[in-house]
Amino acid sequence: MGTRPRRLRVRQRRRIDLLIACTVLAAVIGGCVWIWWVFAGAAPRLEGNVALGGLQAPVEIRRDAAGVPTVTAASRIDLARALGFLHGQERFFQMDLLRRSGAGEISGLVGEAAVPLDIPHRLHRFRARAEALMERLPPAHRVLIEAYTEGVNTGLAALSRKPFEYTLLRADPVPWRPEDTLLVVYAMYFDLQDGDGWDQRRTALARRALGPTMADFLYPHGTPSDAPLDGSVLPEPPLPDSVAAPAASAPAAPPPMTKGSNAFAIAGRLTATGSAMVANDMHLGLSVPNIWYRARLRIAQNGASSLDLVGVTLPGTPLLVTGTNGKVAWGFTDAYIATGDAVLLEPVAGDPLAYRTPDGPRPLSVVTEHICPAHAECRDLEIEESIWGPVVAHDPEGRRIVWRWTAHDADAIEFDGPLALETAGSVREAIDAAHHTGIPAENLVVGDRDGHIGWTIVGHVPKRVGLADGVPQSWAEGGRGWQGYLPPDQVPAIVDPPDGIIWTANNRIVGGDALKLLGDGGYAAPGRAREIRDDLKARDRFTEADLLAIQLDDRAPMLEAWQKQLLSLLQARSGDPRFAAMLEPVRDWGAAAKPESVGYRLVRSFEEEAIRLVYGGFGAAIRQEPGAGSGPLAGQLAGWPTLRLLVDQPPNLVPPPYKSWKEATNALTERLAALVDRDAGGDVRQFTWGARNHLGIHHPIALALPLLGRITDPPDVPVAGDALEPRVLTPGDGASERFVVSPGHEAEGIFEMPVGEAGNPTEPYYLAGHRDWLEGHPSPFLPGPPRWTLTLTPG
To answer: Residue ranges of the domains in the chain?
Structure first.
């Protein structure tokens, strides 16, 4: 009689288990359907016909298998409108983040956590500046931006559902406005330039705490390894005789990675094509999707083409950033010239808001900005503004410091130059266009079909007077300040150098009077530039593949002196098994940033820990100064003074809190051993470069929702490269594109881009081309055969 109840219980359990399984399966299926609904509904239209209001004539968009569009229109206005449609369809969320970054409004989309990001950006009030600038733009440029804006909003509206990011954030996209295009350019100012004068403020604090000789030594303007185009050499700062510093240390990190790029050009007499050849890889934060949108933009009427641009565009703007027009090819690197100066305001007794100017006392204006995070209450931010710019900090005496910045000026964004660059027929015409361009100051590297090459600064160069010291100074007497901008004929330029090669890698490009005109805005360490220069000088004939090989060069000759220092220290402590185990990998380190290399990681970590030790020791005096802030203590050139101290070991310059160099270097090797313990469990064989240097490319929302990354992000694999070599690649930062092209010979050109073209994981070409970029496989510069055709018709 007990058998039947047991059978009933077994059947009941099976029914319950089946019900649970069905419920779980239904939930999984429902979740998958919801995810598909969220993502697929926001995918762009690839084929068919779409009406686009304002078009003068139909526009044909042909995408290849990688999703790269060839856009053929009858006019430049139609081209801008169609490009806006594509950007609105594929990259609207990215564009939204860029405009919000420029305006200091990211928290309005993502919430309270982004307020600390918004505040330093909001100080510059770029939304108000963008609105005012739109009113002053020439009518032709305003029409171009308005057409682009209409295209963006039509593209966004043509999606079946809003971009998936907004669904996940429980938000709705705000339509694009013409001034938002200007805010995207302002966002690049923030990304590429100093927005608060910390480098100058830090130098002043160092001089006050350590004395001018020690400050100039720790923060030099050049090194013996500099690789400028003109061969100029700057004097080395002398070792100080003494320094006053506390017997303590402060937290210090190696200098932050320079936002920059590599760009180099080869004269036609040295190339296989006979035309000049240009290579460019712009180093920026890497994300999903990529910052650039690749495109071929053509104007054709009656079968004849009057414009044929190939390269990358910046979503949010209607222009080609870098690439070729068939006659001229150009690339950019961040120039790091002096585009800002910290101004020390002299107060006026009896009036807390007054400050002295050459024209007498003036009151600060106080503007209230409202920061309104999503799902939270608004807060007020009071901004004090002077005739020279907003107040960004205070000095140790409590005096206000303002930041005078080219980004604040009415001509900070100008379209004459970029539009002229699109149609330039020679290097000379391209350089002239550069001098009539308003963007963050960049090195322009250009080559033309006739074999000429050139370099100059694109963007406006301030005419600075009495400001060579590189510290905050008063402009109240009128002897210091800016006197407008350099006229085009005074902006330094180099055309057709005798050796037929030009290279830039965010380094100092010129010396002498030219350097005095350009100033120093924080040039990068010269290692990359020197290696590129030496690679170029090692050959007398070049193909596109040769230049790609230089872009992919991950060798580290600039670290050889560090390797020798580390090897010497390890040998002195080889009786300790921890250091004995490091000897062989350091001795046979390979001098290259390969994922499998243990020696490279040991040498690189040694360099970083040495910078921490030196700047953490002497930087304690800076940190203790009132108004020191929290910016990095180490500058871009910190490796040179650090290495010199390690080599010379002057007894009067032992970094605090150590009493001797032996004690300091022992502490340095102990730090290295502690890293091996922490990251490799004490097994030095596992302390590989690839274990630290991984790809690290993520969708911005995936950082908060890791499960999203399983859908959006490429595999986070170990990678070759570093911030020091031409092959710049560290987690989440690196070459945002690579191209090599000879104008007039685009069919032989090379183009690579991480993550690829698509912004939505359901697009059929999602991550297309990513592996070529990751592994350095050359892929074609021109789009391939059309796979999908979309026609935009006048609406």
So the answer is: 210-256+557-591+594-692
